[in-house]
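**User:**
Everyone, produce one record:

**Assistant:**
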Amino acid sequence: MRIDIISVVPELLDSFFAHSILKRAKEKKLLDVFVHPLRKWAVNEYGQVDDYQYGGGAGMVMMCEPLASAIESLSQDRKYDEIIFMSPDGQPLTQSLANALSLRENLLIVSGHYKGIDERIREHFITREISIGDYVLSGGELPAAVLTDAIGRLLPGVLNDETSALFDSFQDNLLAPPVYTRPANFRGWTVPDILLSGDPVKIAEWRYESALKKTAEKRPDLLND
């Protein structure tokens, strides 16, 4: 799988993709991530990619020309399954959406900045808009990293135990059950006996019931869905 990211501040993403699971995915050649500086397609020698918004108002807007040039240039080398814009008013990022996107071959992510991007880019190039929450950040780099991580860890072979992702929260519309590790008794706080029983059927039943209980307590809206 390949993910390309267009960014005004590509340096923000360097460290994120150089460590942990995404680094492992790249080393195994399961996921290629390329970050492209938007200023490569700037409208002048000063690297301009933004301008004042028509109609007045505070905040600069990312211009049409650099973004259109970047998208068209990258699209010459491959066909993108989705061209995604990270935006607070986009579709909420969910586990099911991450699952669906992990089945794609090529994704292009546009990281917004300043006041946003010219609406014409959204109308003519963007195929999907995604939000990581009902709040506003300084730029779309962190949301792009979050989306890439959510997708990348689902690719077969990325996690050491490929079944691990199947038991994450939200995979079955439930929160994950509680987890424990050694020691079995810490300061008098003990691990549930069932987890020490060695009975896989009873353990599975306990985990499912615990997931239901946890979801009912913390996210009852998921059960309604």
Notes: Strands lie at 2-7, 32-37, 50-52, 60-62, 82-92, 106-111, 128-131, 185-186, 189-190. DSSP finds seven helices and nine strands in the chain. The CA atoms of residues 41 and 70 lie 6 Å apart.
